[in-house]
Design goal:
By secondary structure, this protein is α/β, with parallel strands linked by helices. It is 39% helix and 26% strand. It has one domain: Pyruvate-ferredoxin Oxidoreductase, domain 3 (3-Layer(aba) Sandwich), CATH 3.40.920.10. The chain contains six helices and six strands. Helix 1 crosses helix 5 and helix 3 crosses helix 4. The mean pLDDT is 94.
Amino acid sequence: MTEEIVIAGFGGQGVLSMGMILCYSGIIEDKEVSWMPSYGPEMRGGTANCIAILSDSKISSPIIATFDTVIALNQPSVDKFEKAVKPGGLLIYESTNVITPPTREDIDIVGIPGAAEAAKMKNTKIMNMIMLGAFLQKKPIIKFENILEGLKKVLPERYHHLLPLNEDALKRGMQLAEQVIEEA
């Protein structure tokens, strides 16, 4: 199993954290991992993306141009990375703020209203965990309990009181992705 993922959005949306959580979780499961961030000089609001690769075998290069999965949290990321999904791959996008959804017919496209759900859960900062949960529902490449362990490693200790909220957000994202599967 090798899963090559790019997560993209604006700085401040938790893009890099999502990739780190996946990679730490992969390490817990004795997988080979690679995490490569890319971001502008802005503290928040600039573009950000990261490539996360999880594999049962050695990873030849962290630099890749096509992906098994794209998780896009904004319109510019959908526009930039839709064409980078391998045929038969998965594109999950945050549908609340994306005006022009992806249109490819050779990939699985899943719109998740992560921002709207995060607002309903009264914390907009958990949108990334909702989206990560949706990804894990579609591609359960990591055990849920190991994602929680990875989250503990990435989330600064001063925010560990928010672990239950983040766990709820992951579960909500899984539910939303399951609903999309049922509707299809």
